[in-house]
């Protein structure tokens, strides 16, 4: 009896701890449904990725499988790639409207609707995965992200990171700013705006069109992701100058979105499973892409004719200055953007000071 009551108190003690120690989304826990162990939830998740897209679509599917296992089959999530149920770039709206319960994408895809969402994926010369995780999980970033998505009835979670991307493939060398003038490059988002300010000509192209456009010289350059995804797309066959670093995407956060009403319909244990499975997948996806990139970089280096270059310092310095200008201009015109920009910049300033004496100082030690 003593043993049983000990187990009981341990169990309920732990449950109480789980319920009280969860993250910011638990402001919604007071509306969580009571636990009914027989109730089965069948959900749909739509993603912004092509079918079978390595790491990202695969990660979304692994996440669903993990949730199925952890919930003992009580929460089943059927995952649809972009276009299978909903066009890739309408996943946010589908989750917002409750057409589906979950989405997987990246916040900068919704920049047309929510410009300040970009800070929750990546901004040029912004924080890397390390800084973004610190900000989102412990520095107040996630709470602001939730506020930003609240009017859309969407609850966001970080669920992966691409790491520092590559600068892209160019059909000629970039030795100075003059070489960017008039250059036609596929580079989306804020990076594209900055590229235009530098005199370049940014072009918007879907992933499926990138290779052909570069190969036929419809464009002079393109960025994509990192060595692994770039190699799979065959970009090394279309241009030979491969530049680093990806100043425009220093660590793009991938997001899980959950419809608010669907979230509130779940008992607290299933909510805790989703939250922790997303956190686990954040580590999984980031680790997997880092490993695949380091292997693919070696393979690309071994391919004859490919030249790996670092962007010249003065080009990077100019692009950074133009990025600061672009962000400040947008903040001056849009109070919602400014609210997130101020929070991001405040955290980032301290993160820079810290990484100057930690990671950057350590990595600067000669080999
Ligand atoms: Ca990219």
From TrEMBL:
Give the UniProt entry's GO cellular component terms.
tripartite ATP-independent periplasmic transporter complex
* This protein's UniProt keywords: Signal
For whether the record's keyword set contains Signal, the answer is yes
Kindly give the Gene3D superfamilies that the UniProt entry links to this protein: Bacterial extracellular solute-binding protein, family 7, Periplasmic binding protein-like II
Which Gene Ontology BP terms does the record give?
A: transmembrane transport
Q: Does the keyword Signal apply?
A: yes
Which PANTHER family did the record assign?
Answer: EXTRACYTOPLASMIC SOLUTE RECEPTOR PROTEIN, PTHR33376
What NCBIfam families is this protein classified in?
Answer: TRAP_S1
From the Swiss-Prot or TrEMBL record, give the protein name.
Answer: ABC transporter substrate-binding protein
């Amino acid at each position: 009896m003593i043993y049983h009551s000990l187990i009981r108190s341990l169990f309920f003690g732990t449950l109480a701890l789980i319920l009280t120690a969860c993250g910011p989304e638990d402001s919604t826990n007071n509306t969580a449904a009571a636990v009914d162990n027989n109730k089965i939830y069948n959900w749909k998740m739509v993603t912004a990725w092509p079918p079978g897209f390595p790491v990202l679509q695969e990660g979304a599917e692994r996440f669903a499988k993990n949730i199925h296992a952890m919930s003992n089959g009580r929460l089943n999530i059927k995952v649809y790639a972009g276009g299978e149920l909903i066009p890739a770039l309408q996943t946010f709206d589908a989750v917002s409207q409750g057409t589906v319960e979950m989405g997987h994408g990246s916040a900068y895809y919704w920049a047309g609707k929510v410009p300040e969402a970009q800070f929750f994926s990546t901004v040029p010369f912004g924080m890397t995965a390390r800084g973004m995780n610190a900000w989102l999980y412990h520095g107040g970033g996630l709470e602001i992200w939730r506020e930003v998505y609240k009017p859309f009835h969407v609850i966001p979670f970080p669920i992966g990171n691409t790491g520092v991307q590559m600068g892209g493939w160019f059909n000629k060398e970039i030795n100075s700013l003059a070489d960017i003038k008039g250059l036609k490059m596929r580079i989306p988002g804020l990076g594209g705006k900055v590229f235009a300010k530098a005199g370049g000509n940014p072009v918007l192209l879907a992933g499926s069109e990138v290779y052909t456009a570069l190969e036929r010289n419809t464009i002079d350059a393109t960025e994509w992701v990192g060595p692994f995804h770039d190699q799979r797309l065959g970009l090394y066959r279309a241009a030979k100058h491969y530049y680093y670093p990806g100043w425009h995407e220093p660590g793009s956060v991938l997001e899980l979105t959950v419809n608010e009403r669907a979230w509130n319909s779940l008992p607290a244990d299933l909510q805790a499973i989703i939250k922790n499975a997303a956190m686990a997948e954040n580590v999984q996806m980031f680790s997997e892409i880092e490993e695949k990139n380091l292997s693919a970089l070696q393979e690309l280096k071994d391919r004859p004719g490919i030249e790996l270059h670092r962007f010249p310092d003065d080009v990077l310095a100019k692009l950074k200055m133009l990025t600061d200008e672009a962000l400040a201009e947008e903040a001056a015109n849009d109070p919602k953007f400014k609210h997130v920009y101020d929070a991001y910049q405040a955290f980032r300033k301290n993160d820079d000071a810290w990484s100057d004496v930690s990671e950057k100082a350590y990595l600067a030690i000669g080999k």
